[in-house]
Specification:
Elements: E1 6-14, H1 17-29, E2 34-42, E3 45-52, H2 59-71, E4 84-93, H3 103-106, E5 110-117, E6 123-129, E7 142-145, E8 148-151, E9 159-164, E10 167-174, E11 190-192, E12 197-201, E13 212-216, E14 225-229, H4 234-239, E15 243-252, E16 255-262, E17 268-271, E18 277-281, H5 292-296, E19 300-302, E20 311-316, E21 322-326
Parallel strand pairs: 5-20, 12-14
Antiparallel strand pairs: 1-3, 1-4, 2-3, 5-9, 6-8, 6-18, 7-16, 10-11, 10-15, 12-13, 14-17, 15-16, 18-19, 20-21
Length: 330
Amino acid sequence: MNPEHNKGKAVAEFDSKSSAEVVKTKMVECTTRFKFYLPKVENNTVVFGFGIESNCVDAPRDFKDLFNSWLNRKDADFASGGSCKNVDIIQCGAPRSLAELEPHELQGDTYTVYVVNKSASKETFWLFLDKPQQLNVGSTIYANSAANLTIAANSDPEAKFGIPVQYKLGAKSTNDAVGLNVVVSTSQLKNVNMGDDWKATFYDGPEHQAPDLDKSDGPVNPNEIGYSDNPFNPDKVILNEWYPSQTFGIETKNGFVGMTWSARPNKAVAIAPKLKFFVTTGDFSSNTLADYTTVSNSAQAIELSDFLGYAVTVTYTSEGEWILKKGRPS
């Protein structure tokens, strides 16, 4: 959402839980003048955060009209005959800066990193996501990215990384142990929200069965994501060459950015994400694990406070240095 848009928290009451479930499903897909995040069904209500191109006085009416239009659709998947009885705006207002928002309130926004190449040669730029504030997994955490841009020398056209803040979790087993320069990509990445709790089930037998990743109902801090593993036998993992790994990050418009680590048996962790990115050049490959020290060395770090209007511009100079500017390119 643009900085002048209102953000807040609300709760909508429906005639039935089935109606609430219909609306929750549609909220995840909504990309119009409303933006929803963390919708949760509680009995006959949906509790959610929002961004809206509407003032706080009109928001309840606008929300109710939108919900009822979804419920009254005639297609087989969503026709329910239900209705929205009430919408209660718990809080609403235009934030003065992104830094004032709670981490879970940032989910659902889209950020843009513009990249300008003023060097004398064509360069490939990579985007990486910094490690969370809290992620004590008991093993080395490697940077993992598929997001890159190749830009011609001394180029003025806009090139950009688009970053919708929708967190992803993945569980995978492969023939290679997690380590530097190992390729770890997964098609089993699942959307997760702050406050969710997830459990991975790994299999250590010779059948090389793919792991399962399922949502659970454990209590979690609203600014964290819970992630736990089942008990499995590390000796069998080595014997059968079926090494378990876990991945966390964001699926950007240019590819996945995040991190990967070796799964540990019967271990539970809390992930407290932070939106800090690195833009760098170097000899990287898609989904090939990299050392965080290497990634951050000679990179431009981008903090949440560097964004203006959800945009920031980084320029790579002919001297191989970086210039950071808040907002879009001039």
